[in-house]
Design a protein that fits this description.
This protein has about 300 residues and is an alpha/beta fold. The protein has one domain: TIM Barrel (Alpha-Beta Barrel). The chain has 11 helices and 10 strands. Strand 6, helix 4 and strand 7 form a beta-alpha-beta unit. Helix 2 packs across helix 3, helix 3 packs across helix 4 and helix 7 packs across helix 8. The N and C termini lie far apart (about 45 Å). The chain binds NADP nicotinamide-adenine-dinucleotide phosphate. The site of NADP nicotinamide-adenine-dinucleotide phosphate (NAP) has 26 residues, from helix 9.
């Protein structure tokens, strides 16, 4: 029987929770409260990034959540991501130290390259391999890598990434990337699993919600769970944090899974192909999400 504690074994043998909390677009205060609340309600996977500017709040939320529940650090699985502007060998090592300090942690469970900055992501990943071999990271991963960039990475590095975190929701199902990840033994993790909220008003989703007596969010998340993805819906509201996690007491039939699969339009967020994300020269300044605009949130 699956539940909120269900895990998947990654390609290096470690277990990763299948369900967690995202904190993009959350201030430090909101992130702290959401993380504490989520841990209190049984979440064990937390997903942040330097780019979100809320690692300090996430770290405080982890500390409070552990204190409130009596859980230990090892009971949690914390993911953060290397910021584009820090790509490169030495700068990755420096940035990682800063991230550990902000989070108040001694190690990271999963460390991702946030975006594949061309000409830099190989050196970046080599620095991450060093940190992995030193035991400061339990699993290495990537995010927003298409199959061409994944092939380049695999050709020039030693540790096969354990996870590729990609946008995945009813209108963007990344068929080719999912197929390649399965071939390479890489777990796909869905970001924006609710389409950033947009998928919640889809008529097919709403009709299935009525049929199963569940909310639209629960239908989408349960479908993604049945599609074997790791999912990290974001909410800063306790009621939704709880609602999103209640997807383990029902099953969507294969016919209805097929209806949701048919919503795919292979439509990534427009910003994906915007040159700045992959461009080694940036500009990075306007790609920082300053939800909480203190320089300390972004320093090395
Ligand atoms: N690797 C990457 O490049 C990347 C990119 C984007 C996101 N991510 C990660 O993936 C996580 C999730 O993606 P996301 O934040 O873009 O979008 P999402 O989880 O698909 O959707 C979040 C939005 O839906 C709302 N929401 C959540 N649960 C709801 C519910 N039950 N009913 C109604 N509304 C609900 C949230 O509002 P409230 O907060 O107000 O409840 C928020 O506006 C991020 O937080 C981040 O950790 C990674």
């Amino acid at each position: 029987m699956s539940d909120l504690k269900s895990t998947v074994q990654l390609n290096n043998g470690i277990l990763m929770p299948r369900f967690g909390l995202g904190v993009w677009k959350s201030s430090n205060t909101d992130a702290k409260n959401a993380v504490t609340t989520a841990i209190k309600h049984g979440y064990t996977l937390i997903d942040t990034a330097k780019q979100y500017g809320n690692e300090t709040g996430v770290g405080q939320g982890i500390k409070e959540g552990l204190a409130e529940t009596g859980m230990n650090r090892k009971d949690l699985f914390v993911t953060t991501k290397l910021f584009n502007g820090n790509q490169g060998y030495e700068s990755t090592l420096r940035a990682f130290d800063g991230q550990l300090k902000r989070l108040g942690l001694h190690y990271i469970d999963l460390y991702l390259i946030h975006w594949p900055v061309d000409d830099k992501f190989i050196d970046t990943y080599k620095a991450m391999e060093k940190l992995y071999h030193e035991g400061k990271i339990r699993a290495l991963g990537i995010s927003n890598f298409d199959n061409e960039r994944l092939a380049e990475l695999l050709e020039h590095t030693d540790v096969v990434p354990a996870v590729n975190q990609m946008e995945f929701n009813p209108t963007n199902q990344e068929k080719d990337i999912l197929a390649q990840a399965n071939l390479e033994g890489i777990q796909l993790e869905a970001w924006s699993p609710l389409g950033g909220g947009d998928s919640l008003s889809d008529p097919t989703v709403l009709s299935l919600a009525e049929k199963y007596g569940k909310t639209a969010a629960q239908i989408i998340l349960r479908w993604e769970y049945q599609r074997d993805l790791v999912i990290i819906p974001k909410s800063i509201h306790e009621q939704r944090i709880v609602e999103n996690s209640q997807i383990f007491d029902f099953e969507i039939t294969s016919d209805d899974v097929a209806k949701l699969n048919a919503l795919d339009k292979s439509k990534r967020g427009l910003w994906y192909d915007d040159f700045k994300w992959h461009n080694p020269d940036g500009p990075w300044g306007d790609s920082v999400d300053k939800w909480d605009d203190s320089p300390a949130n972004y320093a090395d």
